Amino acid sequence: MASLKRSDSMADNMPEALRQSRYHMKKCFTKYVEKGRRVMKLQHLLDEMDTVIGDTAERATLFQGLLGDIWLSTQEAVVNPPYVAFAIRPSPGFWELVKVNSQDLSVEPITSTDYLKYKELIYDHNWSKDEEALELDFGAFEPDTPHLTLSSSIGNGTNFVSKFITSKLSGEPEKAQPLVDYLLSLNHHGDNLMINETLSTTSKLQMALLVAQVYLSGIPPQTPYEKFDLSFKEWGFEKGWGDTAERARDTMRSLSEVLQAPDPTNMERFFSRLPTVFNVVIFSPHGYFGQADVLGLPDTGGQVVYILDQVKALEQELLLRISQQGLNFKPQIIVVTRLIPDARGTKCNQELESIEGTKHSSILRATIAHALEKTKYEDSDIKWKELDPKYHFSCQFMADMMAMNAADFIIASTYQEIAGSKDRAGQYESHSAFTMPGLARVVSGINIFDPKFNIASPGADQSIYFPYTEKQRRFTQFTPAIEELLFNPNDTRDHIGFLADTKKPMIFTMARLDTVKNITGLTEWYGRDKRLRSLVNLVIVGGFFDPSESKDREEASEIKKMHALIETYDLRGQMRWICAQTDRKRNGELYRCIADSKGAFVQPALYEAFGLTVIEAMNSGLPTFATNQGGPAEIIVDGVSGFHIDPNGGGGGEDATRKMADFFEKCELEPAHWRRISDAGLARIEGCYTWRIYADKTLNMGSVYTFWRVLNKRQKLAKQRYIQLLYNLHFRNLVMTDD
């Protein structure tokens, strides 16, 4: 866990905060330790404080100052009488660990090792006392590696690295020699790219660049590279500079500026021109990964769509770049996923499959499985033994640790995926320090201030999800089927419920029926809110109607709950429930039909890591209301390009439905308001969330970090040896045992 490096840390101020409320705090800590050793989450701490300090006004007064900041920043506490150890997280990525003596309220900072041992005492006393217990410390290999320092900078790795590279190359010409050596190393299957040994020093390269630029300025800009490649070769240049004289000159000018007076912008621009990435391997290990008939199968949803769209975008960008570099190489993209013998009528038992809509991309299936799941199951690290028979966390978490530390760079879709929010640790952040008693104690796992972390958000397929206003592109062949889905008054196998007033706008949602997606929550919000019901109809797409058709107990439970809500709130006539739809083109047109009604899209999840349906809806021109828990909070600028809603807000969704009702009432009074939000949503997507932007960012990162790896070769090698040791002496045994 990263220690908080500031003079006014909470640990420093905690003694004074406790002293100011000593009477109440003594009672609280006595209450905390009376049940012996245990782990307490924040809510447990607050609940027991409520029982000790019964007066609401007194509690409110206590929490107005620093004491409130400390308690509300606490992720958990470990009770080991007479001590209570606190894991305090003042802001994303920063952790403070302290222990408080319940008898005299003295405060003492502790290390992550101490804190983890406190937890181990509860679950495996002998392990916590074992001096030979395996302790992993990846942070020991990073003393010289520069790191970001602000929570707000997490995920801006490429920018930080570019600045650092700039500082390393600035000054005397000799400082740029690592870049020259790097350019000399570039090749494709043994053929040199960019430069050859003729230009082995900075001064030689600079002189040759001047000569070449003068030559290129004297010939027509569109002259093909083949017309001057022999002259270039004599001067020490190889192919890769560009397909035309103009592009080659621009690339050379960019390098000249980097060598003469480097700055981060020129550095990134130059690296984006380098021919360094030709092949991409993508691992997508969970669910049934296929191109047809897989959506709706266990653990199979948006991830499949995401990867297939990602592949197409990357191949398109690679082909464009390779062509612009004046090369004729063919890229190759391979998606490695699970080979599933029981394929359920899909091609998931086929080892190799070409990806439709691409020329050089394939699916390769092998025996692998898992995604980042540490935050999905609470306390899954400390309770790994009881969960291991089903989830194999012993292998998963160790594999995650090795992969994260071995990676040159890591791309997340959102900031929250890396660092969470003010109240919740991110998926990657949760690997900073944890323990699996009896297996390993990770005192320093992954540091989210490492500049390897980046954010590149995906988009939606814009050939399918495009604005409702683009009439000529609309998939009108689906219009009759969509009208039947929405407005046929009779119940069928595809839909139940009906809309009595078909002129009303529709609020629309589409997701799996599980607890986290919270579709039944939205239904209940709508059912309770008479004002919202008077303004709009509710359309839900998801799941089955018969719980016996579902093989998932949670989904079956949600189906039963949905039926109960329809009856409880008498929603027939105002709600249409459509079973899960897997035709992407028809779904794209469905979004646009909802937009035609001047409706809106609602994503009410309790937590959403990214929010692909939010992107799809906004791409279609639908004003969108989405959860503020997770990725959608970053996608939408609240009140400008859509609206945030709090699925955990007070009043059982009243805050969310009030926001929706206010919007539709304003649209009735001011019809242009709907179009303003719609247009702002489209602009937001076009500026930040397209596959074109994603592919460009990702390939640029590949170029920058390839050179970064060269500059940090010593630290990289040391950590790699550590990982190899861990793999050979520990992880392989876990895998064999697991098998």
TrEMBL record:
Broad class of enzyme this protein falls into: transferase
Sequence ranges assigned to domain Sucrose synthase first GT-B in this UniProt record: 266-365, 366-487
MF (Gene Ontology): sucrose synthase activity
Keyword Metal-binding: no
Coiled-coil boundaries: none
Domain Sucrose synthase N-terminal: start-end pairs: 6-120
Biological process annotations from GO: sucrose metabolic process
UniProt EC number: 2.4.1.13
All residue ranges annotated as the Sucrose synthase EPBD domain in the record: 156-243
Record's keyword terms, sorted: Glycosyltransferase, Transferase
UniProt catalytic activity: an NDP-alpha-D-glucose + D-fructose = a ribonucleoside 5'-diphosphate + sucrose + H(+)
Origin superkingdom: Eukaryota
Keyword Transferase attached: yes
Glycosyl transferase family domain sequence ranges: 498-648
InterPro entries linked to this entry: Glyco_trans_1, Sucrose_synth_GT-B1, Sucrose_synthase_pln/cyn, SUS_EPBD, SUS_N
Function: Sucrose-cleaving enzyme that provides UDP-glucose and fructose for various metabolic pathways.
Family of the protein in this entry: Belongs to the glycosyltransferase 1 family. Plant sucrose synthase subfamily.
Protein name: sucrose synthase
Organism field: Linum tenue
